[in-house]
């Protein structure tokens, strides 16, 4: 018989500590849907997504019932649409976004990622057209997510793309200003974007991936915090051990769900993404883990060190629990999606500069941060450039998902509702980097890229 | 194939019989039962063989949840595999 305490521990995790599998994401290649007639291409895209993903939601729900584990999201990622759209030049790229939205609604997934362009070294015509269409695409669709990769350790940083994305983020927010600027919450700018990430808004299906694949993202900040709360006086090595053991258990469940979904859907298993993904729900916060380690408030001096320990221990514990680990894997720090981060930002203890430092040791980057509506596109580009530089030099993924709160200033709030949460508009340094951004060109790949 | 049924809540008369009754009705064979009552909180773990279960797992889970609601306790049903995966390397 299985140990009684283990069973009760698991039930307690599910009932009281928000333990769940965050997402089963089906990656679908659309490369075989390319057509120079955009209507034909859209039909092929719609048909393929609906055919491949028709049982995705039901299968996720069935697995959830069989194992008693909530599986929060069933989602889809597709080949970056810029590649598909490049065959239909001079036609409205936004048609693809509408098609993806229709397909997502038909199969019942809440988000579909891949309205994306990879332009870390330069633009193709398709990249250019897609990026220009992002503001409209995100304002006329509900479930489509967009991402743009503007830099990598191997390629350097495409500063023309950085300049462009500052403007695109602002326009996206403006076009959805009547809906709390939600468009910008579905747009991520990456450096070193992973090709197998199951988490939104940055998920897309990379070109090195198989035709179809199942990737699973785990979660469980509440479980980690609760485990730490049971050992209030252990030293920091003990803290790391507790995080590792907990991450192992969480990831094992992710692996089980991934294998089961792969078997039932007859689709190969790709990776498990070992992430601590918070939600605005009470008891599901990464900030509260850091506070449990001994910080008065997230954002205090010591936060970066605690986050570094957490991020590393999650990977160490999780990596042995899964046969394939990938995606973003680490601790997310999205401000509006994390009750503890929201509280710390409202107190003024968590600032944009501290968050920037934290992104050098967390799994992604500046995520879900509301900034004043009058922030200039050049300042947004400056923030993107800084973040991309951290990613490029440290050979890690970094990202920027900022929401310019149109018509609002620091101290006001934006509320998206649901898992995107809401929170205060944060102060931004307004000194202008306009001349630097206007130079354009490409930051050369760093010396650490020359590994051959 | 085995499933683990956990029942947690305030102790009342007939919980064990209620849950076991649902299992028997649908051909789920009870293999082992552990239960403890701490003050007035009741925690029961039941291992059942569902190989010959006459209804789909989903339906069994729904019926057990229903009986749990009737007694005001929380019933959780899951495949044994979940615990083996989490706690055995």
State the gist of this model.
Chain A has 452 residues and is α/β, with parallel strands linked by helices. In chain A, 43% of the residues lie in helices and 17% in strands. In chain B, strands 2-3-1-4 form a four-stranded antiparallel β-sheet, with helices on both faces.
Write down the CATH topology of chain B.
Answer: Alpha-Beta Plaits
Q: Which descriptor suits the 3D outline of chain B?
A: globular
CATH class of the largest domain in chain A: Alpha Beta
Q: What is the global morphology of chain A?
A: globular
Overall mean confidence score, pLDDT of chain A: 95
Alpha-beta classification of chain B: alpha+beta
Distance between the termini of chain B: 20 Å
Q: In the CATH classification, which architecture of chain B applies?
A: 2-Layer Sandwich
- What is the string of SSEs of chain A from the N terminus onward? HEHHEHHEHEEHEEHHEEHHEHHEHEEEHE
Over all CA atoms, what is the radius of gyration of chain A? 21 Å
Describe this structure in words.
Chain A has helices spanning 4-16, 38-52, 56-67, 81-85, 94-107, 125-140, 159-175, 221-229, 236-265, 286-292, 303-319, 339-347, 352-358, 377-393, 434-438, and strands spanning 21-28, 71-78, 112-118, 144-152, 156-158, 187-191, 212-218, 269-273, 275-276, 330-331, 366-372, 398-405, 413-415, 422-424, 442-443. Chain A is an alpha/beta fold. Chain A has two domains: 19-191, Anaerobic Ribonucleotide-triphosphate Reductase Large Chain, CATH 3.20.70; 219-265 and 272-443, Anaerobic Ribonucleotide-triphosphate Reductase Large Chain (Alpha-Beta Barrel). In chain A, the strands form three sheets. In chain A, strands 1, 2, 3, 4, 5, 6, 7, 8, 11, 12 and 15 form an eleven-stranded mixed β-sheet that branches. In chain A, strands 9-10 form a two-stranded parallel sheet. In chain A, strand 11, helix 14 (377-393) and strand 12 (398-405) form a beta-alpha-beta unit. In chain A, helix 2 packs parallel to helix 5, helix 8 (221-229) runs antiparallel to helix 9 and helix 9 packs across helix 11. The longest helix of chain A has 30 residues, at 236-265. The termini of chain A are far apart. The mean pLDDT of chain A is 95. In chain B, helix 1 (15-25) runs antiparallel to helix 2 (57-71). The radius of gyration of chain B is 13 Å and the shape is globular. Chain B has 89 residues and is α+β, with helices and mostly antiparallel strands. Chain B has helices spanning 15-25, 57-71, 81-87; strands spanning 2-10, 29-38, 41-49, 73-79. The model of chain B has no long low-confidence stretch (mean pLDDT 90). In chain B, a hairpin with a 2-residue loop joins strand 2 (29-38) and strand 3 (41-49). In chain B, 37% of the residues lie in helices and 39% in strands. Chain B has a single domain, classed as 2-Layer Sandwich (Alpha-Beta Plaits), CATH 3.30.70.260. Classes of the chains: A alpha/beta (452), B alpha+beta (89).
């Amino acid at each position: 018989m299985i140990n009684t305490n283990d069973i009760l521990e698991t039930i307690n995790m599910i009932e009281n500590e928000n333990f769940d599998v965050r997402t089963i994401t089906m990656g679908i290649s659309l490369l075989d849907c390319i057509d120079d007639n955009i209507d034909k291409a859209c039909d092929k895209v719609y048909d393929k997504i609906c055919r491949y993903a028709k049982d995705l939601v039901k299968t996720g729900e069935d697995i959830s019932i069989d194992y008693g584990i909530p599986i929060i999201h069933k989602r889809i990622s597709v080949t970056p649409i810029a590649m598909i759209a490049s065959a239909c030049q001079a036609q409205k790229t936004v048609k693809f976004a509408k098609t993806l939205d229709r397909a997502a609604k038909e199969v019942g997934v809440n988000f579909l990622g891949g309205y994306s362009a990879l332009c870390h070294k330069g633009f193709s015509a398709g990249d250019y057209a897609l990026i220009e269409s992002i503001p409209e695409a995100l304002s006329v669709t509900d479930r489509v997510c967009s991402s743009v990769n503007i830099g990598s350790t191997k390629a350097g940083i495409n500063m023309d793309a950085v300049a462009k994305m500052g403007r695109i983020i602002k326009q996206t927010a403006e076009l959805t200003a009547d809906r709390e600027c939600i468009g910008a919450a579905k747009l991520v700018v990456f450096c070193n974007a992973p090709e197998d990430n199951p988490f939104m808004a940055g998920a897309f299906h990379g070109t090195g991936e198989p035709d179809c694949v199942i990737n699973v993202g785990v979660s469980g900040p509440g479980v980690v915090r609760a485990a730490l709360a049971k050992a209030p006086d252990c030293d920091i090595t003990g803290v790391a051990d507790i995080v590792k053991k907990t991450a192992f258990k969480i990831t094992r469940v992710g692996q089980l769900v991934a294998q089961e979904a792969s078997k039932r859907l007859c689709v190969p298993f790709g990776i498990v993404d070992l992430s601590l993904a918070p939600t605005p729900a009470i008891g599901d916060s990464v900030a509260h883990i850091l506070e449990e380690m001994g910080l008065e408030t997230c954002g205090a001096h010591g936060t970066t060190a605690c986050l570094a320990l957490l991020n590393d221990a999650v990977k160490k514990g999780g990596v042995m629990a899964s046969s394939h680990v990938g995606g973003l894997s680490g601790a997310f720090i999205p401000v509006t999606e994390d009750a503890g981060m929201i509280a710390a930002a409202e107190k003024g203890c968590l600032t944009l500069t501290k968050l920037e430092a934290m992104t050098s040791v967390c799994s992604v980057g500046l995520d879900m941060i509301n900034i004043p509506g009058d922030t200039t596109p050049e300042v947004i580009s400056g923030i993107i450039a800084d973040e991309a530089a951290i990613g490029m030099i440290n050979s890690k993924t970094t990202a920027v998902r900022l929401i310019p709160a149109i018509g609002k200033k620091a101290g006001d709030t934006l509320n998206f509702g649901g898992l995107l949460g809401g929170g205060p508009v944060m102060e931004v340094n307004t000194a202008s980097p306009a001349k630097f951004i206007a130079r354009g060109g490409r930051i050369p790949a760093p010396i650490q890229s020359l590994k051959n | 194939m085995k499933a683990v049924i956990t029942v947690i809540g305030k102790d009342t008369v007939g919980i064990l019989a209620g849950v076991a009754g649902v299992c028997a009705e649908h051909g789920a064979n009870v293999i082992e039962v552990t239960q403890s009552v701490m003050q007035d909180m009741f925690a029961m773990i039941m291992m059942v063989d569902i190989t010959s279960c006459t209804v789909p797992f989903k339906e069994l889970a729904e019926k057990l949840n229903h009986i749990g609601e009737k007694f005001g306790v929380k019933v959780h049903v899951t495949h044994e595999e979940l615990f083996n995966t989490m706690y055995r390397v």
